[in-house]
C-alpha cells in the first residue's frame, strides 16, 4: 500500500478503508521463568507454527479504536488486552509523530491460545505495532517495537521481563540476562512437544505467590534465584554442546523448582509425569504457572508415543516444535 506524504514524510491520505497488516508468533520458555526478573538467565524459543495477524483499518467516525478478536477469549481477557493495546496505540502515535486520530478497527486473528504461557498477549501487541506501521507507512526498529510491546505487556502482567516481547519476533532461540539478549548456540537436535493443559495460567497470581514465599522465608529468594541460574546455565551449555540428556534433566529439575515454589498444579504435574513415562528426556511447565502448558524435550522417534500419553493424561491439544538454530528457522 502506498500513502501520499507531506514534505516531512508524514502520511496525509489515510482514507476510510485503508488497511495495515502485522504478524507475530508464539514463544515458549525453556528455563528461567520468574527468576529472570531477578537477574537470572532465561532461555526461550520461538514457535513459528502458532501465529497471530492483526489488521488495522481506518473507518469513518470520530477518533477511537474498536477491537475484535477471533476465537472465544473470555470477556475479562479481551478487556485486559484492549486496555494494553489502547495504550500501545497511543504510544505509537506519539512516537511516530502521527498527529491526527482516525477511527481504527483492529481485528486480531490468531492461533495462539490465551493465557497458556505461549506469549499470546505479546504476539498480539507486536502484530498490532506492525499493522499500525504498515497502515501509516512507517518503519519501526526492533527496539521501538520492543518498547511498544512492553507498554502493553506491563499493563497486562505488571512488571514484564521482556522475554515474551523479544521472542515473539525472534527467528531462533534466545538467551536473556539482566536486560541483554543474544542468540543461543544450538548443538542439540530434537523435538519440543508442547501440551496445553486446557487451564488458563495465572501469571499475576503466580508472581504474587512467589513474592509472598520470599517474604516469609529468609533467604528464599536468593536460594531460588541461585538454583534457577545454575540450572539455566547448565542447560545452556548442554544445548550448545549437544548433550540432550543433560538438557532434558535440567528441564525436569527446573519444573521441580517451580513446583516446590507452589507454581505448578496437579494437572500440570500429571502431564509432566506422562511425558517422562513415555520417554521424554525432560519435561516442565512453561510460562507463568498455575496452569498453562507443559514442554517436553523428545527424540523424534518417541514423539508419537509422548504425544499420545500427554492426551491420555489430559492434554487438550499439542504442538511439536523442532529445536534448531537460526539458519534452520529461516527455512
UniProtKB/TrEMBL annotation:
GO cellular component: cytosol
SUPFAM superfamilies in UniProt: GHMP Kinase, C-terminal domain (SSF55060), Ribosomal protein S5 domain 2-like (SSF54211)
Subcellular location: Cytoplasm
InterPro entries found in the cross-reference section: GHMP_kinase_C_dom, GHMP_kinase_C_sf, GHMP_kinase_N_dom, GHMP_knse_ATP-bd_CS, Mev_gal_kin, Ribosomal_Su5_D2-typ_SF, Ribsml_uS5_D2-typ_fold_subgr
One GO molecular-function entry: ATP binding
Biological or metabolic pathway of the protein: Isoprenoid biosynthesis; isopentenyl diphosphate biosynthesis via mevalonate pathway; isopentenyl diphosphate from (R)-mevalonate: step 1/3
Pfam family, one: GHMP_kinases_C
GO BP of this protein: isopentenyl diphosphate biosynthetic process, mevalonate pathway
Boundaries of every GHMP kinase N-terminal domain copy: 89-164
Location of the GHMP kinase C-terminal domain: 236-313
PANTHER family noted in UniProt: MEVALONATE KINASE
NCBIfam families: mevalon_kin (TIGR00549)
Name the UniProt record assigns to this protein: mevalonate kinase
Gene this chain is encoded by: mvk
